[in-house]
Amino acid sequence: MARAFERLGWKVCRRTYVLVQTRFQRWLWKLAPRLGRHTPFGWRPWLEARWYNRFLRAEVLPELVRSSPDLLVFVRPYRIESDVRVCLAKLGRPLVTWATDSLSRYGPYAGIWSTAACNYVFDGADARDGAGQWLPPGFNDELFQPADQQDWDVLFVGRIFYRLYGRRLRILERLTESELPATWRVAWAGSVVRQHKRLASRFQESGGVLLGDLPMDRLARTIARARIAVSIHQDDGQQPVNPLFFAIPGCRACLVTDRREYLQNWLKPQDEFVPVDEESCVARLAELLKDEPARARLAEAGYRAALRHTWVARVQTILHDLQLA
Questions:
Q1: Which of 252, 256, 245, 234 is nearest to 296 (CA)?
Q2: How far apart are CA 131 and CA 203, in angstroms?
Q3: What 3-state DSSP class applies to 9?
Q4: Which residues pair with 157 in a beta bridge?
Q5: What is the DSSP letter of 139?
Q6: For residue 209, what are the β-bridge partners?
Q7: Would you state the pLDDT for residue 40?
Q8: Which of 21, 57, 76, 289 has the fewest CB atoms below 10 angstroms from its CB?
Q9: Would you say residue 225 has pLDDT above 70?
Q10: With 50 as the cut, is the pLDDT of residue 81 above it?
Q11: What are phi and psi of 139, to 5 degrees?
């Protein structure tokens, strides 16, 4: 996001907050769930707010006073305490917040919505009643770009964790049990926790290639070298948009994702991406693999549409809304 501002001619001063930084904080963070909920929002949210506001007082506010920026952007702010809120108001500068997770999970962290000029939300359900503007994060078009060759026919992207990954797990199991890994070049970029290690072994035994967790630059190159990339949303939130929802078509790979009606607000189903459910996923993949012209048309249309959703485009939206363009 900072790079997008720079590409548009802005000078950026970035301050990144790391929640748990010391050994004592790590110990206290692990202990917090056992302490009960004797604070208004529970111990962990209380610690988050305490440590976050300490960071704002020590590192952010002095810089704001010194540099007097034209715009303040808070990405996923935690709860901001009253004295910090007063200091921010005194600056008299436009302030923007962007919640990069569903507020149904992180509601207490809406931060400074009441005093911000614009509030953007990641989850479409959080934009109800005018509470904020729905704006999913964009993708880095300097990193996610088309490639000249394609090494994979199907690339499944995403890790499998303990909870909130049920739909992704079930679709990956169906892909593993199908004939596709044995007859096409099928790979999986991601990992599983210990309780699902057997799935990784079965995937390899069926003919698939397990690439494991990839750093972002390698992941971008791998997606770009796939004819079809499958990205399934997590089960949490109400109307989330997977971060790869724009990045995959931005690599000119054909995007296959789980069927969610609200996604048509951002890309056109059946024209710019392929929605599937658990029962139809494998059959739809087989159809696309056998019909290269149809797959290529979807990939090309998705690519053109994705260019409207880069990080630069997102920053342009913010500047337009603030009349700073």
A1: 252
A2: 44
A3: coil
A4: 189, 231
A5: B
A6: 187
A7: 47
A8: 21
A9: yes
A10: yes
A11: -125, 155
